[in-house]
Amino acid sequence: MTTNQQPQRPAVDALGTPPQDHGTDNLGFPHDDRHDRGLEFDVQTLLARRRVLGILGGLGATAALAACGTSGDDATASSTSGSSASSSTSSSSSASSSGAPGSTPDAEVPDETGGPYPGDGSNGPDVLDDSGIVRSDITTSYGSSTTRAEGVPLTINLTVTDAGNGYSALAGAAVYLWHCNRDGQYSLYSQGVTEENYLRGVQATNASGTATFTSIFPAAYSGRWPHIHFEVYQSVDQATNDGQIVKTSQIALPEAVCKDVYATSGYEQSIVNLAQTSLTSDNVFGDDGGIHQLATVTGNATDGYVAT
C-alpha cells in the first residue's frame, strides 16, 4: 500500500463535524454513533480523510505496519511490564507472516478510520503537542492529573517496516497509540474523563522498527470489537509538530484472550458487550474478519499480556 506526504491535519474530523451526542450507551456514557455506522460510513470517512490529507502518491520510504510483526526486543518488553509470556498463551491469526525485518508480510495492515476520539487535533483535543505525550508507559495521565487507568497489564509492540526497502525494519519512525479504558471510556472525550489524557502516547521505533507501550487491556464497549488505535509518522518530530500521517489503522484483540481478561474484576460490562458483536460483524474489521489486524497475544490475566 502506498502513501505520500500529507499537509497539516485539519482542525476538525474528516467529515468536518464534531462528535454528536446521541444519548448514552449501555455504560451510561455519551454515545457517538459515528463509531458504529457501518462499513459504508468508514469508507466515506477514509476517502474524505484522503482528500483532506492528499494521499496521492508514494513516500520515498513507504512505511507499512506488518501484521503480527515480531521484534528481538519482545523479551525486554515482557519483563518490563511484569508479563509472563511463557504462561498460558492465546494465539491470533496465522494468515500473516512474522513480519520480521527483511521478510515480506502476506499483507500490510490496511488503512482504517481513526474514529471520533483521536486526540490528534483532527476532531477537537490535540495532545500531540503536549510535552508529556512522548512516553512508553501510557497508564497514567500527565500534567494537572496523575490518575492511573486500572486494568489487566498489557504491553503493546508495533513493528514498522519499510515496504520500499524489502520490508526492512524502519528505525526512527513514530507511533501514536490510543485506546479506551476498562470502562470503555476515551480520555479527553468521554463523560467523567475529559480532564484525563491517559492511554495515549507517542514512541519512536527502535533499531528493530518496534515501538513499545506499557498499558492496560481495553474494554469491549457497545458496538465495537475490542481494539487499539494507532497512527504512524516518519519521526517523533513529525508526530508532535502537526506532521504527516503515514498510516492510520486499528489492532484487533483475540477473542480467547478477551474472554479471559473480561472474566476479571472491573471488566464485567465487557462480557455483555463482547457477546453482542464479532470480528466479522464489526464495522471496521468485518470486511475480512480482521485477518491482517489481529494481534498475537501471550501471557495471562494475572501477570499481564504482551500483544505484538
Share of residues in helices:
10-25%
Biggest sheet character: 7 strands, mixed
Kindly report the average pLDDT value. Answer: 76
- Reading the helices and strands in chain order gives HEHEEEEEEEHEHHEE
Tally of alpha and pi helices:
5
Helix-strand makeup class: alpha+beta
Instruction: Please name the fourth-level CATH homologous superfamily.
Output: Aromatic compound dioxygenase
Number of strands: 11
- Described by the principal axes of the CA atoms, the overall outline is globular
How large, in whole angstroms, is the Cα Rg? 18 Å
CATH class reads: Mainly Beta
CATH topology: Protocatechuate 3,4-Dioxygenase, subunit A
The end-to-end span amounts to 21 Å
The overall number of domains is: 1
Which ranges are low-confidence, i.e. pLDDT below 50, for 5 or more consecutive residues?
1-63, 66-104
Beta content: 15-25%
CATH architecture name: Sandwich
Put the structure in a nutshell.
Residues 70-105 have a biased composition (Low complexity). InterPro entries: Intradiol_dOase_C, Intradiol_dOase_core, TAT_signal. The protein is α+β, with helices and mostly antiparallel strands and 308 residues long.
Furnish the topology, listing elements before pairings:
Layout: H1 39-53, E1 63-65, H2 74-81, E2 89-90, E3 153-162, E4 168-169, E5 174-178, E6 200-204, E7 210-216, E8 227-233, H3 236-239, E9 245-252, H4 255-262, H5 268-275, E10 297-300, E11 304-307
Parallel strand pairs: 3-11
Antiparallel strand pairs: 1-3, 2-10, 3-4, 3-7, 5-6, 5-8, 8-9, 10-11
Region (Disordered): 1-36, 70-132
Protein name: Dioxygenase
Keywords: Dioxygenase, Oxidoreductase
